[in-house]
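ENCODED BACKBONE
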Amino acid sequence: MRLAVLLGRAIATLVILKSCTINQSQAIQLQDGTVYFVQPPRLVEVTTTYNEVNFWSATYYFTVSLPENASEPLQQITINQHEGVDDIRFDLEKSFAFEGTRSRKGQKIGLKDVTRENKTRTLSVIFDPPVPPGKTITIGLKPWQNPSVAGVYLFGVTASPPGEKTHSQFLGYGRLQFYQRSFFGFP
């Protein structure tokens, strides 16, 4: 009896796995049409060129890796300031993206649109065309100036595949630390 139950479960599991096998080139799509990444992108790093408060010409870099088996291209990255005293505002017209990392810049990536929702402190970057799987990309954002208050600033990063109905994947938080520099030992 036990052997029959175990054998039945094993066969049922194989049948279920067979019906759920995902082709690397196909996305996960639910019955309602919602599209998911098979393997979500990964937030690699978030850095700034200058970490001093009130600095005017800094650039913030957000690097994301989209694995080969993601199954879907990357259409949009959303960056939300979760923590930090000052509300950091960006010169959206100066936003850019490229393949690679900050230290290994590659080909430029087209941006269809860069927008900001002030109430939620959320910035959206839409790629044109969408970034294919297997790429590491970096987004460069230019703040009007670094925050005037020193401390930790956290940015939540979310990725979305293309489509009318998609499931966005939260990738994690990027952390930037800003410091108040002192001159001659005085604050």
Q: What stands out?
A: The two ends are 79 Å apart (CA to CA). Helices lie at 2-20. DSSP finds one helix and twelve strands in the chain.
